[in-house]
Amino acid sequence: MMVRTDNRAVNDVRPLQVQWRYLTQQPASVLWQRGITKIMVAAYWQTKAAGLVVTGTGLTAGQIDWLQAALLPLVSAEALTQQQLVVTITTLENDGGQLAEAFNATIGALQLLPDTLLDQQVPCAVSVGVMADQTTLVDLTLAEEEIAISQMTMVATAQEQVGALTLSGQPVDSSLFNELILRASQGCTRTTAQFQASFQQAVQPVMAAGIPDVGTIVIATKNPGKAREFEAVFAKAGLKVKTLLDYPELPEIDETGQTFEANARLKADQIAAILKLPVLADDSGLMVDALDGRPGIYSARFAGDHNDAGNNAKLLFELTGVPTEKRTATFHSTLAFAKPDRPNEDLVVEGNVAGRILGIPRGDNGFGYDPLFYVPELDASMAELSLAQKNQVSHRARAIANLEPVWRDWLAD
Ligand SMILES: O=c1nc[nH]c2c1ncn2[C@H]1C[C@H](O)[C@@H](COP(=O)(O)OP(=O)(O)OP(=O)(O)O)O1
Ligand SMILES: [Mg+2]
């Protein structure tokens, strides 16, 4: 009986370690370590195109093609006609089993993308080989791969069906082939158990609650001022906030709606559909009574482009000569919370705060129209308030207060 390079039994697989959600900015990412073979995979859906795209570093074009073919039957063909599933694989260290573990790591990442894998039964890949003395080994190290006379990578499902397989090296006769298949399917059973133990411990409780990552809320905004306010509020609830500034590759969302709600839904729905995560969006603005409610939904574009100083200058100009008591205004925020693929079921809440437009700007906190928005109860402009103070009184804070008691139940529903 041959001695393995790391003294394992011939039918023994190496320990598996998985770091789920390995990349901060990619929810569906894993660092997959089999022994010291390390592979990182990230996966995401994008709307720009359709189909399945697998890219990899450290893998040959043939291996990428094999992975593509092995993965394709596992993903909804219909979803792939509408969106593109992108899988990026990076081999960080190869000590054998690279192709099998690239497949496994990809399945791991896809498990983190809701509604992506068709089958609940997680398939798994394993490498097996025949040595010079005809011994068959499972999960070969690189040193073993180098001296193996034949090698095979096989995908098996939990129902013990063989999916894709590759064979290389010297031809094997049928009894050896059967032995290889048996070895591989035992290896798959072991690997699946390792995989599931890790997944169940680290990920499942969170996903079972219907919340892909309760630790983080994605907010579909590119406005850092809004982001700071959301962060401060959600931090109290133990939640981290990610915004579109964390996902620079996402497309621009056109705010073509005619209401705050329509625009908030547009932003939340489209980003949720791409990230396959629950997403919160805010559409907000300033309504000035003397201007018949303008700029309203056009607040960001009041002076043409999205420019706070330009908007404030235009507002002051349009209110030239309007006396203090007629400069009343309302700040409004509508929040839409979207679940992936359920665009008509958004949770929508709103908040308002009444105030007055000042004649000259005051304060330099906050963003947007804050220096011109005077809050009578506090005798201060919004920009004179600290972040914490603004989060007590603002339209956004009030909308969040309306969201707070309901969103967890809604999300879990
Ligand atoms: O608390 C606020 N303090 C001052 N100004 C504010 C506030 N809340 C909204 N506003 C103004 C800024 C912007 O001119 C418009 C919102 O436009 P809106 O499209 O919702 O936001 P945005 O384009 O800045 O960021 P994004 O769409 O990426 O969330 O109203
Ligand atoms: Mg906007």
TrEMBL record:
CDD domains assigned: HAM1
EC number, UniProt record: 3.6.1.66
SUPFAM superfamilies found in the cross-reference section: ITPase-like, Ribonuclease PH domain 2-like, Ribosomal protein S5 domain 2-like
Keywords from the UniProt entry: Hydrolase, Magnesium, Metal-binding, Nucleotide metabolism, Nucleotide-binding, Nucleotidyltransferase, Transferase
Domain of life: Bacteria
EC supergroup of this enzyme: hydrolase
Cofactor: how bound: Binds 1 Mg(2+) ion per subunit.
Entry binding sites for substrate: T221, K222, N223, P224, G225, K226, S284, F367, G368, Y369, D370, K390, H395, R396
Cofactors demanded by this protein: Mg(2+)
Chain's role: Pyrophosphatase that catalyzes the hydrolysis of nucleoside triphosphates to their monophosphate derivatives, with a high preference for the non-canonical purine nucleotides XTP (xanthosine triphosphate), dITP (deoxyinosine triphosphate) and ITP. Seems to function as a house-cleaning enzyme that removes non-canonical purine nucleotides from the nucleotide pool, thus preventing their incorporation into DNA/RNA and avoiding chromosomal lesions.
Family note: Belongs to the HAM1 NTPase family.
Protein name in UniProt: dITP/XTP pyrophosphatase
